[in-house]
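Saturday, quiet lab. Running sequence design on the structure tokens for the scaffold JK sent over.
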């Protein structure tokens, strides 16, 4: 049985938080966006990126989601300061004070975490901050974006913008619910070192992670 816990008018349309048994789901404009059933690939996105960076990494996480990536970053000994950019205030509220808080053991209260309520594309354009690791999980993939405006992040100009926010030797990590060979090709054209991981899921095609070093 599925229970609707909250429905709000978000910046990208209607957002719904619902409970399905012991798990939570977030629906955006009627399209499934995320849930708390597994989260293995979301955790690996940040842990593998951190493994690839020497020392204490300053990390940017694009997209708060259900907090799995943030929790994994906090638990990784190689991660120091973490900046999370999330444009939907409802998602932040569900994680900070709502039912998602217990999913990640109140990760937002950790003093190492700064949450920025902003559209990631717009924020990247105006910021001068740089990071050792930038982990991108704001869409279901480069060709399955939540909003049309996000698509530019995965094109040549967007990859240039992301690379500019990395420190020397920094790593870009990208999450996807599907394989996108054309995006992998663009990554390899922009970055000298690219690694692709496929993570099996209970149903459907495996999740895909890309890691590109500047």
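Result came back. Writing it out in full:
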């Amino acid at each position: 049985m599925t229970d609707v816990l909250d429905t709000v008018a978000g910046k990208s349309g209607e957002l719904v938080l619902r409970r399905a048994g012991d798990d939570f789901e977030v629906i955006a404009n009627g399209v499934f966006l995320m849930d708390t059933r597994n989260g293995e690939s979301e955790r690996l996105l940040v842990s593998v990126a951190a493994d690839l960076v020497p020392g204490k990494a300053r990390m940017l996480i694009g997209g708060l989601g259900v907090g799995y990536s943030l929790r994994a970053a906090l638990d990784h000994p190689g991660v120091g300061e973490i900046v999370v950019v999330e444009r939907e205030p409802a998602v932040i509220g569900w994680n900070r004070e709502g039912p998602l808080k217990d999913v990640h053991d109140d990760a937002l209260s950790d003093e190492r975490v700064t949450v920025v309520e902003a559209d990631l594309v717009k924020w990247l354009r105006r910021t001068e901050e740089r990071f050792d690791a930038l982990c991108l999980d704001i869409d279901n993939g480069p060709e399955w974006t939540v909003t049309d405006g996000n698509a530019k992040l995965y094109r040549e100009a967007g990859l240039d913008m992301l690379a500019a926010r990395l420190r020397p030797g920094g790593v870009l990590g990208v999450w996807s619910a599907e394989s996108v060979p054309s995006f992998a090709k663009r990554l390899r054209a922009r970055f000298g070192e690219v690694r692709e991981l496929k993570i099996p899921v209970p149903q459907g095609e495996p999740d895909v992670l890309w890691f590109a070093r500047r």
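Notes for JK: The longest strand covers residues 166-176. The chain has six helices and eleven strands. Ask whether to fix the surface positions before the next round.
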